[in-house]
Amino acid sequence: MPDAAEKTAAEDTGERWWHRWFRTPRELRELGVVGINMRNARFLLPNNPRRLYDLVDNKLRTKALAEAEGMKVAETYGVLLSPHDANRVEKFVEGRDAFVIKPTRGSGGKGIMVIDKRAGKNFVKPSGAEVTPGDLKNHVSNILAGLFSLGGKRDYALIEYRVQPAKLLTALSFQGAPDIRVVMLHGYPVMAMLRASTKESDGRSNLHQGAVGIGIDIATGMTVRAIHHGKPITEHPDLGIGLIGVQIPDWDTILHMAVTCQLMTGLGYLGVDIMIDETLGPLMIEVNARPGLAIQMANGIGLLRRLEPVVAQHLKHPTADLEAKIAFSKKHFRAKLPPARD
Amino acid sequence: MTPQGKLLTAVIGLTALGGGLAAYKSHKLGVPFWQGERVDEWLVEAKVSFLATGKQVKARLSLPTDAVRKGSGQESGSLGYHYDEEENQDEYTAVWSAREREDTQALYYRVRFKQGLASGGEPRPALEKPAAPDVPKLPGSLGAAAQNIVNQAKSVSADPDSLFVALFRQINDASSSQEYVLVKRHYEKEAVVNPNIAMGIDLLGLAGIPARLAYGVRLSDENAGQAPIPLLEYYDGAFWKVRDPLEPSKLPDGREMFVWHRGGGPLLEVSGGVENSRVTFTVAKDRIPLATLTDLRDSPFLISTILALPVSERAVFRYIVLIPLGAFVVVIMRNLIGVPTLGTFMPVLLALALLEIAPLKAILMFSILVGAGLWFRFLLSRMNLLVVPRVAACVVIVTLLMMLMGVVSFQLGFSVGIKITLFPMIIIAWTLERMSLIWEEEGKRSALVQVTGSMVVAVCAYYFMNVSQIQYWAFYFPEMLLILLAGILLIGRYTGYRLSELIRFKTFKNA
After folding, report:
1. Cβ separation of B507 and A230 shorter than 8 Å?
2. Per-residue pLDDT reduced to its tens digit, A214-228
3. Which of A22, B61, B205, B358 is the S-S candidate for B133 at Cβ 3.0 to 4.6 Å?
4. How many CB pairs below 8 Å do chains A and B form together?
5. Dist. CA A67–CA A5, nearest whole Å
6. Selection from A217, A256, A260, A223 nearest residue A242 by Cα
7. Measured in whole angstroms, how far is the alpha carbon of residue A324 from the centre of its chain?
8. Regarding predicted confidence, which is higher, B116 or A148?
């Protein structure tokens, strides 16, 4: 028998015995949690026409669009198109110490190789592992063969500027560069999070690989909540640094970038990934037409609670402009702020 | 129309179409809906046997009209005889003829028909009104006695049917009146084969009712070589009717009696140098082979054409029709339960492979192959090969591993090993490639979770596809796949949570 005090405490938090194992569909619905089926059927399929997918699946096209809008993106050092180019990969990175090689059609961070510096003839990854020129060529050939691309299509390799993340953000991450994901519906920012890697995630920012998800208040750009493997935390599991109450710099710029991405691609439901460079400020990294659902865990709010008001607002004002959309989101999606970081 | 409306229309339409076709096939065409539901048929074989004396032989056997006309699988076996079928005024006759036959001869004629169908003894309209029957010539007092009997019977009956019943009740009754005994004794003395029936025919003739002999076969597979059962056919003014004189009040029952010969004339007629001719019948109950029953070439529905294919082509479909079932399981496992798999339909192909081999052995083999293949794959990756050659190298290695496993398991005495060649090799090679990629990109945990998920889904799909009733439906009622399609469409609009999400979001709390 659990003692009385424990029992009342459990009742206070609304905790039930089964919450250790699962939550009932009804409970999740009351929390406004969006499942994959609902995301696909209600938000992805009706709002994201198939023909627009290539705009965001092909990073070259996304970057071209963004540059045409005057948005800041990571500088392209070169595009490797053929096996011939792959053999000359060292020519492309001549004079560059730090760079990133990625497939133009990769997804979920697959096939991205980050080089921080050189060590003699070799290159050094952020983890300190050395990469020989041969490894580099091999990686490029894999990219060209379509190993990392969606559906295994033949692909190109993109060499671009290695973002030097803002100190404020690198402090929150164990190696790797943290990025900011803003999810939008009809151009209204609905939720945002910062993804920081851990020892376990090995420089990657995928939450299911053990990265930390940090919810960001849309109104202020302040971090409000953090989760690791689905459980709320307040400190980074490896670094012990407090994750709550951090102000993301250039928040308004970030929101503007995100909404511009929606306008330029025409996708109704999308996620925009942004990194903040120490010197260049926010840079748009990629647009995702199928953003995941972990963001609602990081924010502790069911996505439906934000998507439904946006759907209603969009019906009422189908031609609202960028500023009006940001203002709406800031007004309605303000988080209950925790006490500021001391 | 709203998308929901369209979906609902499609779902209802597909269900109605699939269900309707299946119901039509089951009820109208007689394809059993449940596997193992018996549909029996009778196989009646007439054997004409005689002793030939080295001269020309001609045998004529009267045939059941309905059976011949329906073409219900009659066949005749008559080695060295010229065989022909004659039709004369709706009556069919088998005619065998041969020159210079010696020794015991046997001719066969077989008829198959579905159990419970008509007996062939139904009232049949006369083509032309039969001539008034000859009044039998009975000497003196016998004639008076017969006339008395007929008058007496007529007085208690209203129509030819009841007269028939009244007469034969008396004839069959051992303790009947003096007059019966008198007349009966006369016929017995005349040494006719069936005195009672001969007497009945004459008495009916006296009453003005034409009557003639018919023959039937008792539908029981207990006594082989039964003699034909004499029946009586009489004319009631509009129809020729058949009744069994031994059970005069009972109409012929299709479950017990098959009327082979009617329409007068002899059942068997053998001419030439022949002795001891006779015809016997053997009856066998047989389960109708489904292939015959479902031979729906005549059916107007295109959907049934799968059964109109030659047997060898159908064998291919036996597996093909299972793929939608596997796909259905994948949809359930992925969209309702949320099991992660490698690729979407790889589990279906795996499940098809499991159908070939016992699942436990197959899983063991798959694990060994994938494990060994993965190890080789990592060795290869150290050589920095390009992707396509690397996949090709994987295929070669998997092939060699399969051969090795086949040989080893054969040496160890498992014949199953040989069958592994049917195991879809490309699937394994591709699984290896996919898995090793995920291993490198997302870590071994993801890779193992997805491979295990694929196996679980494949095993579920296997058990679903292996239910023989479901295989039966898929094969004999392929239109039921439309109902499956409707179900898949419905799941396609399911926006609720997956089972795995209930666990994934278990820690979800309002901030």
Report:
1. yes
2. 999 999 999 999 999
3. B205
4. 98
5. 61
6. A223
7. 24
8. A148
pLDDT of residue A228: 92
What's the number of CA atoms in the CB half-sphere (13 Å) around residue A142?
23
CB B112 within 8 A of CB B286: yes
Contact B498 A231 (CB under 8 A): no
Averaged pLDDT for residues B350-357: 78
Closest to A322 (Cα-Cα) out of A235, A275, A262, A278: A262
| Contact between A300 and B511 using a beta-carbon 8 Å cutoff | yes
How far B323 CA sits from the closest chain A CA (Å)?
Answer: 22
E strand or H helix at B423, and its extent? none
How far apart are the CA of A76 and the nearest CA of chain B, in angstroms? 24
Q: Is the C-alpha dihedral spanning B189, B194, B199, B202 positive or negative?
A: negative
Closest Cβ opposite residue A35 in set B384, B388, B498: B498
Query: Quick one: what percent of chain A has pLDDT higher than 90?
Result: 54
Give kind and range of the element (H or E) at residue A273: strand A269-277
The string of pLDDT tens digits covering residues A175-202 is 878 899 999 999 999 999 999 989 888 7
Query: Per-residue pLDDT for A2 more than 60?
Result: no
Among B386, B498, B507, whose Cβ lies nearest the Cβ of A141? B386
Least confident of A19-23, A71-75, A320-324, B218-222: B218-222
Please tell me the distance from the alpha carbon of residue A291 to that of residue A271, in angstroms, as a whole number: 5
Answer whether A272's CB lies under 8 Å from A253's CB.
no
CB contact under 8 A, B511 and A145: no
Q: Sign of the CA dihedral A88, A91, A92, A98?
A: positive
Minimum-distance CB partner of A209 among B335, B443, B498: B443
CB A275 within 8 A of CB A285: yes
Q: DSSP assignment of B431-487, as one string?
A: HHHHHHHHHHHH-HHHHHHHHHHHHHHHHHHHHHHT-HHHHHHHHH-GGGHHHHHHH
Three-class secondary structure of residue B96 per DSSP: strand
Given an 8 Å threshold on Cβ–Cβ distance, is B507 in contact with A21?
A: no
Tell me the two tokens of residue B408. Answer: 């080893």
Q: Which residues pair with A185 in a beta bridge?
A: A188, A269
Distance from CA of A275 to the nearest CA of B (A): 21
Give the tens place of pLDDT for each residue, B128-165.
777 777 777 777 777 888 888 888 888 888 888 888 88
**CB distance A142–B387 less than 8 Å?**
yes
Q: Which residue of A has its CA nearest to B511?
A: A300
Buried b (16+ CB within 10 A) or exposed e, B120-130: bbeebeeeeee
pLDDT digits (tens, 9 = 90+) for A18-66: 888 888 888 899 889 999 999 999 999 999 998 998 888 899 999 999 9
Q: Is B139 in a helix, a strand, or coil?
A: coil
pLDDT for the residue numbered A150? 64
Q: In this structure, are strands A269-277 and A212-216 parallel, antiparallel, or unpaired?
A: unpaired
Within 8 A by CB and 6+ apart from B183, the residues are: B138, B142, B145, B146, B149, B199, B203
What pTM value is reported for the model? 0.68
pLDDT of residue A1: 42
The beta-carbon neighbor of B510 closest among A25, A31, A141 is A31
pLDDT, tens digit (0-9, with 9 covering 90-100), for B262-276:
877 888 888 877 778
